[in-house]
Amino acid sequence: MGSVTCNPLAPPSTHLLLNPSKIPKFCHSRRQLHGSQRASKIIAYYGLKTPPYKLDALEPYMSKRTLEVHWGELHRGYVEGLNKHLAKDDVLYGYTLDELVKVSYNSGNPLPVFNNAVQVWNHDFFWESMQPGGGDIPKYGVLEQIEKDFGSFTNFKEKFIGAALTLFGSGYVWLVLKREERRLAVVKTSNAINPLVWNDIPIISLDMWEHAYYLDYKNDKGTYANVFMNHLVSWNAAMSRMARAEAFVNLGEPKIPIA
């Protein structure tokens, strides 16, 4: 068998995804110093990404206290857990977070690092799926694409909120662009699974873990999901994500303008 050239910038190839034990150690790991200085290890893992707004900016629909607990404690815990995994064994060092989610999912047989990696990705994406003064209806090509794929924006909202109410246990609800079918779809995922592992392109997401809504809405998932859709969801973020997705998926008409 030939050796694998280590390249920290290269995306994971198919045989590495299917055989994580063959993932190469990356070139970053050691740097020899001269004289009496010991060899040092260069480390640069993942940092806690700040939401794109102040922690009280989503009030009264999502409280500052919820953000302090959800982002400041739980999200931070996933980042720290991910970095602890990587510090123990740097075999996965050098991947982008997208690549790390896919390779650690390991074709449905998740590696120990997967849960922390995917929850870091999910939370970054969830915070950016909301904005102060959000809700209302999307504009331009995003609305046209939703109407094309769901029949109407009302149908889409009903399907999205219905998915939130029927999700068993903890998980997420997503609006995704399906590459092969070239259409938008609402999907729900259990626990921390995200649509990247199925090669779908996420557009917006709603966190349906209890800690995302309990402080503000107790067990009222219906009100939480409706408030998200009517007052929090960022259609500006959706438009940017759809515009990027068109680089990979030819949707024909309508064209999504670059935000």
Automatic annotation (TrEMBL):
Give the main EC class. oxidoreductase
Question: What GO molecular function terms would the record report?
Answer: metal ion binding; superoxide dismutase activity
The highest taxon in the source lineage is Eukaryota
Q: Tell me which species this is from.
A: Citrus sinensis
Keyword Transmembrane among record annotations: yes
Give the protein family.
Belongs to the iron/manganese superoxide dismutase family.
Name the residues that span the membrane. 160-177
Coiled coil location: none
* Protein function: Destroys radicals which are normally produced within the cells and which are toxic to biological systems.
Q: Which residues bind Mn(2+)?
A: 70, 123, 207, 211
Q: Which GO terms describe its cellular component?
A: chloroplast nucleoid
Q: From the UniProt record, list the reaction(s) this protein catalyses.
A: 2 superoxide + 2 H(+) = H2O2 + O2
What this protein needs as a cofactor is:
Fe cation
Recorded hits in PANTHER family, A to Z, give: SUPEROXIDE DISMUTASE, SUPEROXIDE DISMUTASE [FE] 3, CHLOROPLASTIC
Q: What is its EC number?
A: 1.15.1.1
Which Pfam families would you find in this protein's record? Sod_Fe_C (PF02777), Sod_Fe_N (PF00081)
Any idea which UniProt keywords this protein has? Answer: Chloroplast, Membrane, Metal-binding, Oxidoreductase, Plastid, Transmembrane, Transmembrane helix
**Protein's name according to its UniProt entry:** Superoxide dismutase
Q: Where in the cell is it found?
A: Plastid, Chloroplast
